[in-house]
Write a structure and sequence with these properties.
The chain is mainly beta and 191 residues long. The chain has one helix at residues 158-163; strands at 10-11, 18-19, 25-29, 47-53, 63-70, 74-75, 78-79, 94-100, 103-108, 114-119, 124-127, 132-137, 143-150, 167-172, 175-180. The strands form five sheets. A six-stranded antiparallel sheet has the order 3-4-5-13-8-11, with no helix packed on it. A three-stranded antiparallel sheet has the order 10-9-12, with no helix packed on it. Strands 1-2 form a two-stranded antiparallel ribbon. The structure holds D-sorbitol-6-phosphate and zinc ion.
Length: 191
């Protein structure tokens, strides 16, 4: 049995920076999201989001945590979003706690059932196991949230890469609209 030492990290509520910097930093660009937006990617080098991880053990009895900084912007009318994933271990749950900005959390089951939750400073969104999840920044400032999840959850990106997500989130003038994703398929497309 390994016993980990307790520790404190400081998370900047505005920027999401973790001090002291600990685990890896993952940066995603539009080039990492080819085919996920309705329109072709306008600028492959555009930074869409950063994820700062805390350095914690990764067994099924540990918790992992990270902050996501999802920068404002659009592709056509569609707001910047994360790639979205199911947990590789499907029943692993997660909490998102929003620190700053305004967003929507899209949730989908593999059979296409879906829900949408608001994200704003102070919201704690519970993501039960089996729900795929994608975050969308619908504001003019970075959307920053702190995620805590069972440490062996892992990532299944392939399911959403191949099927898409049931909903899209778009700007309609000053309004935020949700619409069915015309490119969504509840089953994997034939090769
Ligand atoms: C991890 C958690 C988040 C996301 C992050 C980026 O389980 O849900 O930390 O990893 O928001 O999203 P994505 O879909 O690129 O992993
Ligand atoms: Zn997750």
């Amino acid at each position: 049995m390994t016993i980990t030492n307790p520790f404190t990290a400081h998370v900047d509520l505005g920027s999401g920076q973790i001090d002291p910097p600990a685990g890896p930093l993952v940066s995603r660009y539009l080039r990492d999201m080819e085919g996920m937006y309705q329109l072709p990617i306008p600028n492959p080098d555009r930074l869409v989001y950063d994820v700062h991880y805390l350095d914690t053990p990764t067994s099924s009895s540990d918790l992992s945590a990270c902050t996501t900084i999802l920068y404002p912007g659009r592709v056509g009318d569609e707001f910047h979003m994360t790639k979205g994933h199911f947990h590789a271990v499907r029943d692993r749950a997660e909490f998102y706690f929003t620190l700053s900005g305004e967003g929507r959390l899209l949730l989908a089951l593999e059979d296409g059932g879906h829900e949408t939750l608001d994200m704003r400073p102070g919201t704690a969104n519970y993501i039960p196991g089996h729900w795929g999840h994608r975050s969308v920044n619908v504001g003019d400032d970075p959307l920053v949230f702190f995620a805590v999840f069972i440490a062996d959850a892992g990532y299944d990106y392939a399911t959403i890469e191949s099927r898409g997500f049931p909903l899209i989130v778009q700007a309609d003038g000053d309004h935020v609209t949700l619409a069915p994703n015309p490119r969504y398929s509840p089953v994997d497309p034939l090769p």
